[in-house]
Sequence to fold (344 residues):
Amino acid sequence: MAIGDFLSDHRLSVDPINYTFAHRVLSNPKGPLAANVARITDGGVRLTSRDIEEMGHQAGAPAATAPNGPAEAESPPGESPNAMMQALVARTQMQVEDFADTVATMRAETQVFGRDLLAGANAIRAASGAAVDDITQLANAMLDRVQAAEERLAAATVEAEALRRELETARDDARRDPLTGLANRRAFEDAFSVAADSGAPICVGLCDIDHFKSVNDRFGHAVGDRVLKVIAEALREACGQHLVARYGGEEFAILFTGVSVEEAVATLDGARGTVAAKKYRLRETDAPLGSVTFSGGVSEHEFGEVMGSAMGRADRLLYTAKDAGRNVIKGDSDGNISQLPARN
Fold:
């Protein structure tokens, strides 16, 4: 239970590498590995598969095969990206078969009970002292079998509920970026399709961390990961009920529903201002990290158009924001952007 909570708290996939790591941390809470985990997670920061790798373990989550890499990178060779889901499905199928066996057994026993009751009724009609004793023994045996069947069914029900929760967690993990906890690109695209089909007003936003490569080059990927988490949290808080996703690398996407493009731009600009106003320091040395900013583009989706068209406009608006000096949000109303090239 404690290992499951540890993996859930850090949004780590349930695989042998992460499970073993969690076991080693929890089995020696005062050891050097636990102390290292406590240092890294100080302030509520979640562990990543890269953190585990740096502490002497091979990364297990598919999305963490490369530092700051795409939110949905390929899995290690020989490992299916859906291995955990497939295992849960297999366990669920086994549970369904157990249910079928339990129900079949209870049905068969019910038929036996019926025959036994009929025999008991006939015996009562010609009751004698010995017959009453036989009926009492028969009734006790029937009660024992009913109780055993109920216990088997109750145990199967508990296991099925546990599997249901695991499946829900696995489905949720498959649609989330393991580093930031945000929705991933797949979840964003699915949500866009649902919103577009509903006919609700939609705006899409794309934002990209300014000079992110220099952060990785100067301070290392661990600091880069923390910057990604800072931006993710700022976007999540500023955008409220709107869906925020890590779209890939240092790029984030926001699905605004039920608001105008002006309101969407203002919301995203609020997150930009919050991030730009903070003073960032390195955790290890307390040395200043320098400014962290991001640029963005927001476009209004036209009813009936494909997602790629709206995202393409948002991407070109993001290009204009970068070209205008960065640390700015551009929207459809800022001018004609149809002739600008898409970003590389």
